[in-house]
Amino acid sequence: MLKNYFTIAWRNIVRNKSFSSINIFGLALGMGCSLLIVLWVNDERGIDAFHEKDNNLYSVFERQYHDGQIDAGHNTPGLLAQEMKIKFPEIEFASSMAWNDLSTFKVNDKILNEEGNYASPDFFMMFSYPLIEGDAATALKSPSNIAISRKMANDFFGSPEKAMGKSMLFKNSKDLVVSAVFENISTRSSTKFDFILPWEVFLEANSWAKEWGNNGPATYLSLRADADIGAFRNKIKSLMDLYSKDENFRIELDIQKYSDIYLHSHFENGELKGGRIQYVILFSIVAAFILLIACINFMNLSTARSVKRAREIGVRKVAGALRSSLIKQFIGEALLTVIIAFAIGLLTVALILPVFNGITDKHIEMPLVSPPFWLTILLLAAITGLVSGSYPALYLSSFKPVGVLKGSPKFGSKAIWLRKGLVVFQFSLSIILIVGTMVVSKQVSYVQSVNLGYNRSNLIFIPLDGDLPKKYNLFKDQAMTMPGISSVTRITTTPTSITNGTGGVLWEGKDPSSKVQFTFADVGYDFTKVMELSMGEGRDFSKDFASDSTAYIINETALKLLNNKNPIGMPFTMWGKKGTIVGIIRDIHFTSLHEKINPLILRLGENQTYGSAMVRTESGKTKEALASLGKICRDLNPQFPFTFKFSDEEYQKLYKSEQIVSSLSTAFAFLGIFISCLGLLGLAMFTVEQRTREVGIRKVLGASLGSLFNLLSKELMMLVGISLVIASPMAWLIITDWLKGYAYHIDVTVWIFVIAGLLTFVVALITISIQTIKAMFTDPVKSLRTE
After folding, report:
1. pLDDT of residue 38
2. Last residue of a domain, one of 262, 294, 311
3. Which one of 50, 258, 315, 586 has the largest count of C-beta atoms within 10 Å of its C-beta?
4. Percent of the chain at pLDDT above 70?
């Protein structure tokens, strides 16, 4: 019997090639799209979850209570990890970790730039970065040690084995001995690095990190398996009270599971709220909806063809077929269609996965050898087949044999309203996708074009490595004589990386109850000129003023905290270094527009021993400028390779997630509306088939083509209009909630909904026209012969 069901199902698929192709293609698109999203979601959820101690790995974050506000973040004092390990027995291992550092290494005549981090001795005891060579417990014990990746070991020494115990010159100033070689960092890790230096090296170069009032590094903990997490959180909450006696600026410590940070990274009012998890949830829902839309299409298309199969059902019932056997037959047909669609969907996913990985910057592979994957596929196929085939099976098997053998079946109001409701549901989802896509695209365009307060075009960063810090003035003088270069300055960190903070700031008239965190950077002469900043008051640092060695420039946000209408010349102290304010710059968006502009302090750092040179090139002459800069660097710093970064590219990295989401949402919106139109095509087919004789009679009586088109399309277009009315408020709620994640964002205007509505109407009208025009030009004699 089962074989008979599938034989009949296959014959029906082959006999109705056009109908079957649309059905299979719609399901294949829906299932392929959903599978892609599932693979992406699984990859996102698996980031950082590969560590053996995953359940016990935590990151410490601070809640800062001040001026009626609650700020939160994972930036902590550089001494916190060791202090917490001493004070709390629940902690098995603890490690501080600093941000990525692009550094130059030299071994014999080979010089390469590598990216890496600084970490405490416990680092490799906590995290599962497998060591090929060396001991995890001692790899970072000595300040003269360094742990490097397999790639770095191969590049410098030929193999991990040959690298052990060998010396490397770090930044042309410090000899380090390779104490461990770890496996190349997995693509499942959110942190990428090719070397790890001992924490003492970081503290030596950054004395500010030894002060409890300054934040910047991250603090990671590995708790003992028997630790009571709730009790531990309560114990550490008030730890910072020992190091800060200011009642008006209180810091609470809390912890977050390390593998959760990647998806849950945003804070609101001191509490974790959102992050990439919003995209994971959003696209999970999109996957379910697109698959549901595809199933609805199957239902609509199957019922649209029901007129053609009515007599078959009547004959079977007269011959003694039970309704249950008919239901099994139609479910079997649905399952066969789904199996074919799934095969096409899997093949499609395999073909476009490389392109998908390129868009999302992933390394997702089809887990073809994974039994759970195939079990999931089979389960999903079974569910899809049952869902998509259930309604047509129940509906078609309910036909009365006497009625269908006399003529075409008459459909009840419930069946008609259900099909219409499904179309409204489909298009409501599609309109929400279209509106969401438009808003995401406009927000991405906004962050790429917004006036940041500085000009990021034609701006180049050159790391000051090797001899360049000592020869910076010579480098600047020579660069200024080269064609295509308009100005040069320096900064201790690139603008998009200014995320550190300090509370060690004093000024006259400071409210004792106010102790906010300031971000800061050391810059060179001509900084405002190179960055093309707008000065609100005062001036830039100048060689004409010897006192500028202790001078400060602040931004407008910082000025509001000072509450002084005449700030120029005002005494100002940072870290006990007394000076005066010489300039006020307009507020600048250095970091992501997700964040509000922080109070900023600039100090003169013309003679700093680290940082980057910033070069402003003339428009259209970047190529010539780079050639000149490369020659200067090779002459002054021959042992180090010439490297550079473009400011606008560094800024774009801040919005990598948004760019990916914009690309994905555009693709999914297109698929959603396309698959929905297949459903609309099904309903149009159904409408035309039901009214075939009516159309023939009207044409014989002289009805115009326009009136016939209006007759066949008006009702369906009304369904699209209802979808727009239902979808608009839902879309507004979703997009306004998403935009709350940005401190600065676009305004949601009514034109977004108008454009989305018009686009949907046009696409729907074209879809309906395909079937209605065909019916309009059909010979009325043939139409009247159909019944």
Report:
1. 85
2. 262
3. 258
4. 80
As a whole number of angstroms, the distance between CA 58 and CA 503 comes to 25
Do 385 and 298 meet the contact criterion of CB atoms below 8 Å apart? no
605, 639, 673 — which closes off a domain? 639
Together in a domain, 332 and 372: yes
Residue 553, domain member (yes or no): yes
| Cα–Cα distance, 516 to 71 (Å, whole number) | 10
pLDDT level of residue 415 (50, 70, 90 thresholds): low
Contact 787, 310 (CB under 8 A): no
- Are 698 and 601 part of one and the same domain? no
| Side-chain-side CA neighbours of residue 522 (13 Å) | 15
Structure tokens at 370: 């994974």
Residue 21: give the domain boundaries: 1-47+263-410
CA–CA separation, 272 vs 99, rounded Å?
A: 22
Per residue in 444-472, pLDDT (tens digit) is 777 666 666 677 788 888 888 778 888 88
Domain count, the chain: 4
Asked whether 334 and 392 are in contact (CB, 8 A), the reply is: yes
Residues 504 and 619 in one domain: yes
Q: Do 30 and 291 touch, CB atoms closer than 8 A? A: yes
**pLDDT tens, position by position, 88-146:** 999 999 999 987 777 888 898 888 888 899 999 999 999 999 999 999 999 999 999 99
Amino acid at the residue 138 = T
Q: Are residues 768 and 784 in the same domain?
A: yes
Between 504 and 459, residue with greater pLDDT = 459
Does 649 reside within a domain?
no
Same domain, 34 and 94: no
Same domain flag for 691 and 608: no
Amino acid 93 reads F
CA torsion through residues 363, 369, 372, 378, sign: positive
Residue 317 phi, psi (nearest 5): -70, -40
In a domain, 647, yes or no: no
Residues 148, 23 share a domain: no
Q: Is 480 strand, coil or helix?
A: coil
Beta-strand ranges (E) seen in 120-233 are 131-133, 145-149, 167-170, 174-182, 195-198, 214-215, 218-223
Same domain, 77 and 180: yes
The pLDDT value given to residue 25: 81
- Long-range contacts at 543-546 (CB < 8 A, ≥ 24 apart): 545/582
Structure tokens at 204: 């030596």
Question: Residue 234: helix, strand or coil by DSSP?
Answer: helix
Q: Which helix (H) or strand (E) holds 603?
A: strand 600-604
The reply to whether 147 falls in a domain is yes
